[in-house]
Structure formats: structure tokens, C-alpha cells
Design goal:
This protein has 2 domains: about 120 residues, N-terminal domain of MutM-like DNA repair proteins; about 120 residues, Helicase, Ruva Protein, domain 3. Helix content is about 25%, strand content about 20%. The protein contains 7 helices and 10 strands. A 4-stranded antiparallel beta sheet has the order 1-6-7-5, with helices on one face. A 4-stranded antiparallel beta sheet has the order 2-3-4-8. A two-stranded antiparallel sheet has the order 9-10. The chain starts with a helix and ends in an 8-residue tail after the last strand. About 5% of the residues have low confidence.
């Protein structure tokens, strides 16, 4: 699943290439969303909200997409051959000389202002780690406490978008490692200072990656040298202990961690 930094970069790219342009053609494939009313409207803004991407138009409507595990947006000069097969296209927005194509996204909605304000997924989002103002540390413990039943361990809590939004699996694993936190630590036993440190670390790493195409797991490790993510069965770069991988929590997402370094909570 694309993480918040990927969606942040996607929004910046769409903003650059189609922002301020009028829509000359629009269609949605297979999902029954009528985009014809967008023709003639101007792309007013493109925003990333955690893992959600919002394209706002001059007529007051917003195109909401969520990539889940499969989706991506591309921009092409109109008429240029696409890098993915046409049958995978779900949204096509032509804006004169530029065409934005959304491939394989399972969530596509055209919302009016009222529906946008009341949207259940968007309304429940916690503070975005890539927002201009970082998450308020004082607000984190109450949010974590409210979600302790749904996310009973810190390994699950960092992926809970109602606590903070935008963190995905890569930065969950890397932040837990860098902070030395055992992912199995119960949420109810997590110290507020530790939670603040975990969120601050994820924010730092994701902020660095939002400005580049490389995954900046850590400034010291280098952009393509993850500490634990994707390294199951290999020795830890710090202590030599074998990195573990397990399907973790109710979502059964793959979690990578070092039993030698991650003993705190």
C-alpha cells in the first residue's frame, strides 16, 4: 500500500502538471462513477490527506481516490503511450496537453462539498504526519487510549489511521527499530514519551522521503539501506541478530523487527 509520503509526492506531481488547467475530457472505467460533469471545470487544487488523494474542481466537486495496495496515478503528455495497460485505467482526466491516469485504484468517488465534509473515512483520520503542522504530542496519548481495543499493540497502533494518519508498513517497521521498541508492547503500557518519539521518527523519515523518489529509511543508513524492512532472515545491521518477519496483528501485515535491538516499550 502506498504510504503517506508516496501520496504526498503524487499530489505534488498532479498539482504541477494539471493544476489550474481545464478538464477537456474525463471518464471513469468499471466503477460506475460519472465524471462527465467535470468537463469544462478547472483543477483548483490537489491535496494529499494521509493516504487519500483529493482533486478539487472549480464546480465545487472533489475526486477522491484511495490507492489501497494496487493503485497509482500517472501523468502523460496527451497522446503519449501509457506505461501500464489501458485495461488497468480506472480514471482518465484529460487537461489539454496533459492526461492524468489513475490505474487500479479500488476507491474512486466524486463528492460534493457536503459529502466531502461528512465522509466517514476522511472525517475519522487522525492528524497527518506530513501536514504543515506536525501532530500535537499532547493529543497522541488520548487518541492511542481511545484505540487501545482496536489496536492492542504498538505494532498495530502505528498503522491505525485514527491515531495518526499517513504511516504505512515500511515506516512502522523502521520507526519501531530506530526507537528500539518491541512491536508486541501493549498499547495500554506504552509510555506517552515513547509514542511521541515513534511518531516524530516516522514524521522525520517520511518528510525526508516526500522530497525524493528514494525511500529514506534513515539519514545514517542511506536511502536504499533499510534497517529491518524486507530483511527477514538476514543479520541486523547493528547487533547481528536475525531479523524476524511475521504476519502481525488483526490485519496480518508483514512486520519486520530485530529481537536483539527492539526490547523496549
Amino acid at each position: 500500500m502506498p504510504e503517506g509520503d508516496t501520496i504526498f509526492r503524487t499530489a505534488a506531481s498532479l498539482r504541477r502538471w494539471i493544476g489550474g488547467r481545464d478538464v477537456t475530457a474525463a471518464r471513469c472505467v468499471r466503477l460506475g462513477v460519472d465524471l462527465a460533469p467535470l468537463v469544462g471545470q478547472r483543477v483548483e487544487a490537489v491535496d494529499a490527506r494521509a493516504k487519500h488523494l483529493l482533486i478539487r474542481f472549480s464546480g465545487g466537486r472533489t475526486l477522491h481516490t484511495h490507492m489501497r495496495m494496487t493503485g497509482s496515478w500517472h501523468v502523460y503528455p496527451t497522446g503519449e503511450r501509457w506505461r501500464k495497460p489501458a485495461h488497468q485505467a480506472r480514471v482518465v482526466l484529460e487537461c489539454g496537453a496533459r492526461t492524468a491516469v489513475c490505474f487500479n485504484a479500488p476507491v474512486i468517488e466524486l463528492l460534493d462539498e457536503r459529502a466531502l465534509r461528512s465522509h466517514p473515512s476522511l472525517r475519522r483520520l487522525g492528524p497527518d504526519v506530513l501536514a504543515a503542522a506536525p501532530p500535537d504530542p499532547a493529543a497522541l496519548p488520548p487518541r492511542a487510549a481511545a484505540r487501545a481495543e482496536a489496536s492492542p499493540t504498538v505494532g498495530e497502533l502505528l498503522l491505525d489511521q485514527q491515531v495518526v494518519s499517513g504511516i504505512g508498513n515500511i515506516y512502522r517497521c523502521e520507526s519501531l527499530f530506530l526507537c528500539g521498541v518491541d512491536p508486541r508492547t501493549p498499547t495500554v503500557h506504552l509510555a506517552p514519551a515513547t509514542l511521541e518519539r515513534l511518531v516524530a521518527t516516522a514524521t522525520r523519515l517520511m518528510g525526508a522521503n516526500a522530497a525524493t523518489s528514494a525511500i529514506a529509511r534513515d539519514f545514517d543508513a542511506g536511502p536504499e539501506r533499510p534497517w529491518v524492512y524486507g530483511r527477514a532472515g538476514r543479520p541486523c545491521r547493528r547487533c547481528g541478530t536475525t531479523i524476524r518477519r511475521e504476519a502481525f496483528g488483526r490485519q496480518a501485515r508483514s512486520l519486520y523487527w530485530c529481537p536483539g535491538c527492539q526490547t523496549g516499550g
